[in-house]
Amino acid sequence: LLRNRSKEEMLSWILRINLVAAIFSAPAFPAAICSMKKFCRPLLPSSMTKLCQEEQLRSHENKMKQIADELAEHKLHPVEKSLKSKEAEEYRLKEHYLIFE
């Protein structure tokens, strides 16, 4: 990916890349709400975060815990084989999203 003269230079690049990524890692907007029970992914912002680093860390930790709890709850209620394929697909999409996140 990157060629560097030394390990220190490589670590410097990694730190800068991570810093820029962190600056732009604002919390996601909530998913759209509608009358249908269809799963919708949250919208990702395209602007810089207004949170300080400590608040960002707390926000990310809270989000990880929330997603882990959601995944555990999701797996407690597996889709029945008798359900329509559309509902099974919705279940699979939500599970894929939660595992990926």
Describe what you observe in this structure.
This is PSD2 protein. It comes from Todus mexicanus. Keywords: Coiled coil, Membrane, Transmembrane, Transmembrane helix. Residues 50-77 form a coiled coil. The chain crosses the membrane at residues 13-34. The chain has 101 residues and is mostly helical. It has one domain. Helices cover 56% and strands 0% of the residues. It has three helices and no strands. It has helices spanning 7-23, 53-76, 85-100. α2 runs antiparallel to α3. The longest helix has 24 residues, at 53-76. The two termini are 25 Å apart. The mean pLDDT is 78.
Quick one: how many beta strands? 0
Strand content: under 5%
In this structure, how is the largest beta sheet organized?
none
Shape: elongated
Portion of residues within helices: 55-70%
Round the Cα radius of gyration to an integer and report it: 19 Å
Structural topology:
Layout: H1 7-23, H2 53-76, H3 85-100
Helix pairs in contact: 2-3
Protein name: PSD2 protein
Coiled coil: 50-77
Transmembrane segments: 13-34
Task: Put the structure in a nutshell.
With 101 residues, this protein is mostly helical. It contains 3 helices and no strands.
